[in-house]
Specification:
The chain is α/β, with parallel strands linked by helices and 352 residues long. It has helices at residues 14-23, 29-39, 54-63, 135-153, 172-183, 203-211, 227-233, 236-239, 242-256, 274-284, 309-320, 345-351; strands at 7-8, 64-65, 70-76, 82-87, 93-100, 105-108, 112-114, 129-132, 159-162, 195-199, 217-221, 260-266, 289-295, 325-329.
């Protein structure tokens, strides 16, 4: 039987693994051993579970599989950023990015294969939506990018951003569980403070994050602060306009006390005027935020262009004059289409 016809053992919770060992009348501590192999040691074969008797390993491999994915290629940018393509066990394609800097090694990971939201500035949107990633597929990207970080830079990942392909809050149950495994002491033990989840803003799930006491940092991909403009670039906004978003974010801030980041891509002659900056300042008056102004990286077949430096500076100065905390972010990996909004389209077109 081929691997992917069996259940991937990594889709089982700790309780389900306990239940499995109880059902086969095995000692309960075997569940703990297996769980540690899976999530602490990143093991992807039953044969490697060296502290389990062979009979148990055989039984596991007859019952479960590992739906591991294959690397399809790497590209390296002049700035050191690496983009890695992955083919999932069912043929779906995703990409992850490793961004090294002097103090950090950041992994940008995907949460869906493709994306259903159709943002008009984004390369991933052109692929459409394939499916949600499983918990193991999200965690595996971290594991593999961590290995590549060791190989290439001799250091472990310091930060993780969920900003790759897909809308994380449309796959929230798997994202939540993956983050628990990435941050848990039984798992990889990475601090939640070093993880950032980026979303276009799904009001109902933002409230859920607050209720769940979600620990990672939240980044809102706003990109336009009026419905008239946001509707044009983020179609999701037509169903959930900005007042709904503000209401959910006010709830989030009141319940968690946390500040979040507002991400704003500067698009030439679309959202980079001082009137746009004023709208952004008004939006941000509702809660304490930090604003990241992001340089846009043109995507083949998409008409938007990057704002010029003068406009960017005027925009930033306008906000800072209102005592706002503002950073200008230059996306990394532009020459290999690994920067913000550029993921996926080219490599995947080549593969299919
Ligand atoms: S920007 Fe994010 S949410 Fe929008 S289409 Fe691209 S991947 Fe999806």
């Amino acid at each position: 039987m081929s691997g992917n016809q069996l259940t991937d053992i990594r889709s089982l919770s700790r309780e389900e693994i306990d239940g499995y060992f109880s059902s086969i009348r095995e000692k309960p501590f075997r569940a703990k051993q297996v769980y540690e192999w899976l999530w602490k040691k990143g093991c992807i074969s039953f044969d490697s579970m060296s502290n389990l008797p062979k009979s148990v390993r055989d039984q596991l491999s007859e019952t479960f599989s590992f739906n591991v994915f294959a690397e399809t290629g790497r590209q390296q940018s002049v700035d050191g950023t690496q983009k890695i393509g992955f083919r999932l066990h069912d043929g779906a394609m995703i990409e992850g990015v490793l961004i090294p800097s002097e103090e950090r090694a950041t992994a940008c990971i995907s949460t869906q294969a493709g994306c259903a939201l159709g943002c008009t500035f984004c390369a991933t949107a052109k692929l459409g939506f394939s499916r949600n990633l499983t918990v193991a597929e999200i965690v595996d990207q971290v594991r593999i990018l961590n290995e590549i970080s060791h190989e290439s830079h001799g250091t472990s990942l310091s930060n993780i951003v969920l900003m790759g392909m897909g809308e994380p809050l449309f796959n929230y149950p798997h994202v939540k569980r993956a983050i628990e495994l990435i941050t848990g002491e039984d798992g990889m033990g990475i601090s939640p403070q070093r993880i950032t989840l980026s979303t276009v803003g799904v009001p109902k799930v933002i409230r859920q994050l607050a209720d769940d006491n979600f620990k990672p940092h939240l980044a809102l991909s706003l990109h336009a602060a009026t419905d008239a403009k946001r509707n044009k670039i983020i179609p999701f906004n037509q169903r959930h306009p900005i007042y709904e978003l503000i209401s959910a974010l006010v709830y989030y801030h009141k319940k968690t006390g946390k500040r979040f980041t507002v991400e704003y891509l500067l698009l030439r002659e679309f959202n980079d005027s001082l009137a746009d900056a004023r709208s952004l300042a008004e939006f941000c008056r509702n809660f304490p935020v930090k604003v990241n102004l992001i340089e846009y990286n043109p995507v083949e077949g998409i008409e938007f262009q990057r704002s010029d430096m003068k406009k960017m500076k005027e925009f930033k100065d306008f906000l800072e004059a209102r005592n706002m905390v503002v950073n200008v972010r230059q996306s990394r990996g532009k020459d290999i289409d690994a920067a913000c909004g550029q993921l996926a389209a080219k490599n995947i077109r080549r593969e299919t």
